[in-house]
Write a structure and sequence with these properties.
Distance between the termini: 42 Å
Strand order of the largest sheet: 3-2-1-4-5-6-11
Structural class: alpha/beta
Shape: globular
CATH topology of one domain: Rossmann fold
CATH architecture of one domain: 3-Layer(aba) Sandwich
Number of helices: 10
Largest sheet: 7 strands, parallel
Helix content: 25-40%
Order of helices and strands: EHEEHEHHEHEEHEEEHEEHEEEHH
Radius of gyration: 21 Å
CATH class of one domain: Alpha Beta
Bound molecules: NADP nicotinamide-adenine-dinucleotide phosphate, guanosine-5'-diphosphate-alpha-D-mannose
Amino acid sequence: MKKTALITGITGQDGSYLAELLLKKNYIVHGIKRRSSQFNTSRIDHIYQDPSLHKRNLILHHGDLLDSPNLFNIIRNIKPDEIYNLAAQSHVAVSFEQPEYTANADALGTIRLLEAIKNLKLQSKTKFYQASTSEIYGDNNLKKLNENSNFKPSSPYGVSKLFSYWITRNYRDSYNIFASNGILFNHESPRRGETFVTQKIVKGLVKIKYNLQGCLFLGNLDAKRDWGHAKDYVFAMWKILQHKKPDDFCIATGKSFTIKNFIDEVAKNLQMKLKWEGKGVNEVAINTRNNKKIIAVNQMYLRPSDINSLTGDYSKAKKLLNWKPKINFSQLVKEMVDSELDKYSK
Ligand code: NAP
Ligand code: GDD
């Protein structure tokens, strides 16, 4: 019998890679997408199957994490073996502008799904994966963060995700649901949304290279992140649900780099030479070929509070799940740059 999975957030970066992975593993994949005024399925168009096909293994449903009856009905009809809750208002800076909406989707949305599993008495059938995040640690002085590190989130997004982390554990302990958290550190890919810093840098510098943009404005250039590849990380999600018991796992690369390091690596791939000058909000990068300022800070991109550094320790996942990242920082940057250049050459 084929396994059935339900992915919330299937139209997002991770949802699209996970859907591909599960289809390869012969699952029947159901995905929840939001109704939008224009198509929002560009990341999954290549695996889309026409609803008029008699036999499909990718089925999309309209839905929203804010809509309990809708989620309940979808889960009642499908009775999935696995639910991956990837849907979220996932932008940290936006969560300061829309804290209530973020909490509704990212915190209460998780309860709505867990309640459906509980009330439909699917405990013995349905496993639940919660997309937790390194944002729940907040600013910290620790070199490497693991499953036992303290949580002190510093954004409405992080606080909402910490609620979901705990409610997932609570439903596991209280109702015997196979419910696990993947505490994932930043992960990127050519499918990364354009307002996250990595993709913004890649797209911006490629435009500058082709003289289509003057200067790229960013926020905190000194923040450090542990960046992995989304493809590696969705494999970890699947492994977490195949483990013999529900548990929580940090998924990371163990290495972190500053935003400036990321910019330098992109520039290297584009054969551009940069010179950094100034400090703090006055820091700029100059293109040494023409002496033009191409990176500067705009204070509108600084957050009310930011996390200076995040580095993860994935040794538990390595030991218990036999998982480790395959794609390193420079390979990730190269893939993102090549993919962007490819669009221009086409
Ligand atoms: P993403 O690209 O922003 O995708 C988010 C998905 O959630 C999209 O499909 C979006 O739909 C959907 N969504 C948003 N609000 C919704 C709502 N109210 N109801 C239903 N669907 C909704 O995020 P991602 O990078 O793939 O991340 C996947 C999950 O992992 C998120 O929960 C994120 O918070 C978490 N996470 C991400 C990272 C990372 O570095 N990428 C690290 C740790 C945790 P639309 O396409 O319609 O917008
Ligand atoms: N987005 C953005 N835009 N970030 C900038 C900019 C800019 O112009 N300039 C500097 N930054 C800094 C941010 O202040 C932050 O310190 C860092 O770059 C990374 O920002 P994002 O790429 O937006 O990612 P994030 O770390 O805030 O959140 C991502 O990773 C989390 C896991 O740690 C998201 O994917 C979250 O959903 C995820 O949970």
